[in-house]
Design a protein that fits this description.
two-stranded antiparallel ribbon, alpha+beta
Length: 109
């Protein structure tokens, strides 16, 4: 015979994200959720624990999505390099090549 009991279930989720767009941004985060679950039987108890884990993961994912949305409009925007007055991206490789060419010309003259 199975006797019903309440247990505390703890679920931990961790995420490590590496984002690269002409820069290097990383996110390391961990979230722990806890809930008291009434185990009315092995099958019912397992179903309740799976529901708890799903609910905790959904809440966590929604929180991360909201955080990224806010960070995209604020933090990430301030990290990005602003365009020059010409509104064109600077071709750093071309600029570096011009400097090398100028240096070579100065050495030969």
């Amino acid at each position: 015979k199975y006797s019903a009991q309440a247990v505390v279930s703890t679920q931990s989720t961790g995420v490590q994200v590496h984002y690269y767009e002409d820069g290097n941004v990383q996110l390391h985060t961990k979230k722990t959720a806890e809930e008291s679950v009434q185990l009315d039987g092995p099958t019912e108890g397992a179903r309740k624990i799976v529901e708890f884990i799903g609910r905790a993961e959904r809440e966590y994912q929604l929180g991360i999505n909201e955080n990224y949305r806010e960070m995209s409009a604020t933090t990430f925007k301030s990290l990005r390099r602003a365009l020059p007055i010409t509104k064109n991206l600077v071709d750093w490789h071309k600029l570096h090549s011009l400097n090398i060419g100028r240096d070579l010309m100065n050495r030969t003259t």
